[in-house]
Design brief:
About 40% of the residues lie in helices and about 20% in strands. The protein is of the alpha/beta class and about 725 residues long.
Length: about 725
């Protein structure tokens, strides 16, 4: 008797070791069940042609098209000096556009015989740019002959599934492998409770798997996707609901601020009034801190909306109540900056135990990995005795040696930079679970907040403080219009001439330690490595910005040097700071009005929005120039155009998500596990997610252990492999 359930059968037994190895290494598929859940990205209809006009650069694509013409050229090269080199150029068309395929050397013979004008085929390869035209070099292809038995068998039905593929494994090979394992779909265990499935008119799981891989009509695809979306949304929401349920059972010490204490003294010395948004969010946080189970709150706010002030007030409230607060920052530059600005905002209230300190004062200490031994020892002593009410640090805070007197609140800045283990280690330092406030300046659409941070309550700061200036953003197409780039440097000189300062951001540092890997000859689009800080600073100093005071800042500098550079820039002693993304979060220099981002196409949408938020922080208007060499038709240029067109971070985060496709939402960086979202589009399926959340909350409230639902428990175990469970645990 076969003891391994059909869906847990390893692929190497079913498909053979070579194919299984490629599937495991390149697609993360190990079992029959994994393969059945590798769904088509889209479907081609016989007779309906793909839009060649919309092909994305640098992606592996599969297209169905017809050969328009094929020409064999001879040429001389190092390998074939007497003009014996051969190159086959095939043009394919689909009515919307044309695409060139190229084959070289011995690889020309087979396609030269097979790819005759009029032939229809599926072609797969990586889209690159050559002589400003899109091409596929050495694509794999599969002829679509409507007559032979084999192809009728393989492409049964009018809809051809196109699978997410890799260079090593084309879509049609994945399709053939799925045909082999499809009979096992009958044994798939259904995770949805029967009542829910019937109530919402959803097909069974085996039927959904069959219909998504072998649809006969578009209605089949719709049925299958509707059902599979519910699986993903519901299982994830059950996991989060169980998490929230377990958190609500944890004990915590309620922390209520003293009415005439530190918080009141701080509010009295603020030179401005809080915005309505800051007041509202502070109230939500104080209400949470006053309860006897731990706060788990996500504070999201636009760049510059005053999140740090809100977090500081929460920390002061906790110190008032006799506890300590720790703020975790992702980089030393940011930790030092937070420490500086918090000490400045608090004035004598940050001088606890010192001459001249105010009556309610506390100590605010900094703890980073590069501090000298004496300073470090003193900071750790202040924490263990309770003299320091507030500590700001990098992951140095997490080390075993660091002990707290009474850790009451953990504030994590820029959530997406921290591994789960790091947050958890800090939370483990409280005598009882401390309250947790997570801050992010990356705006998160409501559905993503419900999905990714579903175990956190959410507060949003969407008002900018008065006196902030608008930022004008423009794309600078350096390859098409070199004079635009020259004008960009003139603008930087003009800003400096008016007494302002500028940032120039590059993707790379540029010393020999990180030489880019050698590219293959096919990677035409990546002809040069990303621009580097050290090279660009040198070129600007000798060229367009000669005479201006230019300094560099990057992550590999000694922390004291970084701090010195930032201090000089903040004091106005530097005109132009050429930096990597170390300036992305938290750096606050109101006199900096211009930013030029080199190779802007190499950054993500959210990252560009974060970077841009560093200018326009004072009363003078900000300017952000996005420099790129990508051609106008490319997806990268469209993305930059979107960033230039709006300052609304929520709008940009939607664009970002739509471009990165569904599956990346839980992000490899977040969980380390492969993502679970395959058909659920977090942006479009808001309704499904909201309904699934309601159903999940009701189910978990009635039966937290899911005793009557073995199928759902199995699905949860699969979703929450150990790594994922830990991620949600520590969310």
């Amino acid at each position: 008797m076969d003891l391994v359930p059909a869906l847990e059968e390893p692929l190497k037994k079913v498909l053979g070791p070579p194919t299984a190895k490629v599937m495991a290494e390149h697609l993360g598929l190990h079992t029959v069940g994994d393969l059945l859940h590798h769904y088509p990205r889209r479907y081609e209809e016989r007779g309906q042609l793909t839009h060649l006009a919309d092909l994305p650069m640098d992606e592996h694509v599969t297209v169905v098209a017809q050969v328009a013409d094929a020409r064999l050229h001879s040429f001389a090269s190092a390998k074939a000096p007497r003009g014996k080199g051969q190159r086959l150029e095939v043009t394919i068309t689909d009515g919307s556009g044309r695409l060139q395929l190229v084959f070289f050397g011995n690889g020309v013979h087979k396609p030269h015989k097979e790819l005759l004008p009029g032939t229809r085929a599926m072609f797969a390869g990586k889209v690159s740019l050559f002589n400003r035209r899109l091409q596929l070099a050495h694509p794999a292809y599969e002829l679509l002959r409507g007559d032979t038995e084999e192809s009728v068998e393989n492409w049964a039905g009018a809809l051809i599934p196109i699978y997410p593929a890799t260079a090593k494994l084309e879509s049609w090979k994945i399709g053939k492998a799925i045909q082999t394992v499809l009979p096992s779909a009958q044994e798939a265990v259904d995770p949805l409770p029967g009542s829910l499935r019937e109530g919402r008119g959803l097909v069974s799981l085996p039927e959904a798997l069959l219909k998504i891989h072998r649809p006969h009509t578009k209605a089949d695809i719709d049925d299958a996707r509707a059902r599979l979306k519910w699986d993903e949304a519901f299982v994830l929401q059950v996991a989060l609901a169980r998490r929230r349920h377990a958190d609500a059972q944890l004990p915590a010490v309620p922390r209520r601020p003293n009415p005439d204490g530190l918080l009141t003294a701080f509010d009295d010395r603020l030179p401005f009034t809080l915005t309505d948004g800051q007041r509202k969010v502070s109230r939500e946080i104080f209400d949470d801190l006053a309860t006897d189970h731990p706060m788990h709150r996500l504070l999201q706010g636009e760049v510059g909306s005053g999140k740090t002030l809100v977090a500081l007030r929460a920390m002061l409230a906790v110190v008032d109540a006799g506890g300590q607060a720790a703020m975790l920052a992702p980089t030393e530059v940011l930790a030092q900056q937070h420490h500086r600005s918090i000490v400045e905002m608090m004035g004598e209230l940050a001088e606890g135990g010192m001459l001249g300190g105010a009556e309610h004062a506390t100590k605010v200490v900094l703890l980073t990995g590069s501090m000298g031994t004496a300073a470090r020892k003193q900071a750790m002593l202040d924490l263990v005795t309770g003299d320091a009410g507030i500590v700001i640090g990098t992951h140095a805070l997490i080390e075993d040696k660091v002990q707290f007197h009474d850790l009451a609140l953990v504030v994590v800045d820029e959530q997406h930079r921290f591994g789960v283990e790091q947050r958890d280690a800090l939370r483990g330092k409280g005598k009882q679970p401390p309250h947790l406030l997570v801050m992010t300046a990356t705006p998160i659409p409501r559905t993503v907040a419900m999905t990714v941070f579903g175990d956190l309550e959410t507060s949003v700061l969407d008002q900018l403080p008065a006196g902030r200036s608008p930022i004008a953003s423009h794309v600078v197409p350096a390859a098409d219009k070199p004079h635009f780039l020259a004008r960009a440097w003139e603008r930087v000189r003009e800003e400096a001439g008016n007494g302002h300062q500028a940032y120039v951001v590059c993707p790379r540092i540029g010393d020999d330690e990180e030489e880019p890997k050698k590219k293959s000859a096919q990677d035409e689009a990546d002809k040069r490595p990303p621009l580097a800080v050290l090279d660009v600073a040198d070129q600007l100093a000798k060229g367009p910005l000669t005479g201006l005071r230019i300094e560099v800042l990057h992550g590999r500098m000694h922390p004291d040097d970084k701090d010195a550079v930032m201090r000089r820039f903040a004091a106005g002693d530097t005109d132009v700071l050429v930096a990597t993304t170390v300036i992305e979060v938290g750096v606050n220099v109101p006199n900096a009005t211009a930013m030029v981002i080199m190779d802007a196409d190499r950054f993500g949408v959210s990252q560009l929005h974060q970077l841009r938020g560093r200018v326009g922080r004072g009363s003078a208007p900000g300017l952000c120039l996005l420099v790129t060499e990508m051609p106008e038709a490319s997806a990268a240029r469209q993305r930059l155009g979107a960033v230039a067109a709006t300052l609304d971070g929520f709008e940009l985060s939607r664009i970002d998500l739509e471009q990165r496709r569904e599956g990346d939402v839980l992000g490899q960086a977040q969980s380390g596990a492969r993502t679970s979202l395959r058909v659920l589009a977090v942006i479009e399926d808001e309704e499904v997610i909201a309904q699934a959340r309601e159903e999940a909350v009701a189910l978990v409230a009635a039966d937290p252990e899911l005793t009557g639902l073995p199928g759902l428990r199995t699905a949860l175990d699969a979703l929450l492999d150990d790594e994922r469970e830990r991620y949600l645990d520590k969310g």
